Amino acid sequence: MEGRIQSVYAGSGVDGKGLRVVVFFYGCNLRCPFCHNPETLYGDRFKVFSDEEVVAQIKKYKSYIKRGGVTLSGGEPFCQAEFAKSIIKKLINENIPVIIETNGHIIDRELLALTEYVILDVKNQERDNTEVYDAFLTACESEGKRVEVTNVLVPGVNDGDEKISSLAALLKKHGIKEIRFLPFRKLCRDKYLQLKIPFGFSGHREAGEEDLRSADNKFSEYYQKRKS
Q1: Where are the beta strands (DSSP E) in 30-106?
Q2: Residues near 101 by beta carbon (within 8 Å), at least 6 away in sequence
Q3: Three-state secondary structure call for residue 180
Q4: Structural contact between residues 74 and 29, judged by C-beta atoms closer than 8 angstroms
Q5: pLDDT in tens, 98-128
Q6: What are the Cα distances from residue 75, in Å, to 30, 46, 126?
Q7: Residue-wise pLDDT tens digits, 172-197
């Protein structure tokens, strides 16, 4: 089986537990203007790999990632669900655990069942309704999969009371007690220049430590007030 891969990166310490190999899938069902990986969405900067080729690359680092594993990211891995399943099944045969980073807009229960756990990045920078994630979280519960939730915090866009209260309501409904707010950064600006496309959030301020602390405090406050 073949699929489109933008890159394979060995040495990540932020895309799941332990040291990991991250496979960046090309293609996504969303077009978020704050996307940090526009190279996975636009242009032709990808290669066609077979599942065997991807697994062979990962196996080179098997001893290196023995306390971590592999993360399928992107882009959006669920857009190439069959390819992702084939890779995971082969890695399971090698005793290499796999997790998926996803935007939570596509549900494939078979793919969820194969993963160790899920990192869900809630995209509430432009959308006010977080109910779209309800079905995805319900599917994760049905498959018995732990979910870690992240949210890119953009000052003046999604750091207000209404947005964070909505997050607290969503997560409390599904018994998820924590969220990791990620600071909005403009390190990706050069990527947009190279791709000759506009960076939609270029005019927004980057998030600092105080912004993250404020969001954490608001989330905790609203979470505690919220009924289960």
Answers
A1: 47-50, 69-73, 98-102
A2: 15, 16, 71, 72, 73, 74, 77, 119, 121
A3: strand
A4: no
A5: 999 999 999 999 999 999 999 999 999 987 7
A6: 9, 11, 18
A7: 999 999 999 999 999 999 999 999 99
Rounded CA-CA distance 50/78 in Å is: 17
**Hey, which residues does 148 pair with through a beta bridge?**
119
| φ/ψ of residue 172, rounded to 5 | -65, -35
pTM, to two decimals: 0.95
Q: Which two tokens stand for residue 136?
A: 């995805």
Residue 194: which region, alpha, beta or left (left: phi > 0; alpha: psi -120 to 50)?
alpha
Residue 197 neighbours by CB under 8 Å, 6+ apart: 38, 42
CA separation for the pair 31, 26 (Å, rounded): 13
Distances (CA, A) of 132 to 32, 34, 107, 226: 15, 19, 11, 19
Contact between 25 and 74 (Cβ < 8 Å): yes
**Spatial distance between the Cα atoms of 177 and 73, rounded to a whole number of angstroms:** 23
Kindly list the distances between the CA atom of residue 27 and the CA atoms of 76, 79, 86, 109, in Å, as whole numbers in the listed order: 6, 7, 18, 20
Spell out the alpha helix ranges (H) of 12-65: 51-59
Residue type for 92, please?
A: I
